[in-house]
Amino acid sequence: MQIDHVHFYTEAAEQQQAWFVQKWGLPASSLNAHLTLGQALEPAATTAVQVGPVRFQLSAPSSSSYPVAQYLARHPAGVADLAFRVANIEAVLQQAATLKVEILQPLHWRADRAGSYRTACVQGWGDLQHTLVERDSPVVPSAASNASGWLGIDHVVLNVEQGDLEQALSCYERLFGFQRRQNFAIQTAHSALCSQVLHHPSSGLQMAINQSASASSQIQEFLDWNRGSGIQHIALRVAEILPTIARLRRNGIAFLPIPASYYRQLSQRAGFGLKLPEQQAIAEQEVLVDWQPDRPEALLLQAFTKPIFEQPTFFFELIERRASLQSQQPAEGFGEGNFQALFEAIEREQIKRGSLKG
To answer: Does the reported pTM lie above 0.85?
Structure first.
């Protein structure tokens, strides 16, 4: 199972597409004029951009009676549909029926630039939907997307209400076959959260689910602004993060600032082996770095944008998984050594917004 596409609902789809094309350098992608959205065929104003093998669809409301407008009446702009490409769509629908998961759109045939495919749509956690796509052949990334170094989606993160974590995990385990991997509990003087990583055994697709462990945490702030659970961020995997971040900064994309103290502490960690020029470039671009003690050359490098919409909800992570020279295996995990630094960086932004007292 892989992510087929991500569907954003927004008030201005064409402007959002232009932002991705001009600021991010993502190529525009063609779409059918009409898309099946939830339970209705809506002639929505829909555009798209391509990120490696994955497409971002962007829909704006065409009428107050259609699903896009109804979603935006309940939530701010964000991810409304996380579409999964599955090997056996009937098996997923049968499991959904067994679990009494609502089937929003029954099985039917569609066609796009990649060919014909079978699709359906089921209810996910909260108002999140999951379009199911069964294709005979994989989607080939565009040459423009490959040339820009966009490799696709590394993982996604879902925030749920306090007390809902176990039920949400069970939902995705039983419906889609995810399995639990590492879990995290992060705490500062101000707030705390719990996170559980899910991993799909057939493809390696990863999905983390977070819940707040305090009333003032960044997870609770997201839930308050989003008016419920939802996708907090998507991690985009890139071939080389440092030139990518530098280019995005020049184009006006804002990233979370990282204090100089992080880089002083980084150089004291066991296995630290960055040469001075790259160490300086990483600090200049404010990139987080992590590695496993037994594989210090397999670096995981991360950076996080500030929220991309008007409300402080959805943001992007950029991630490079650098391979070890000996094994040629890329770095794994979620940057466990960086969780505290990331949590504190987001808290500093909360303090600036006045939603957390420093």
So the answer is: yes
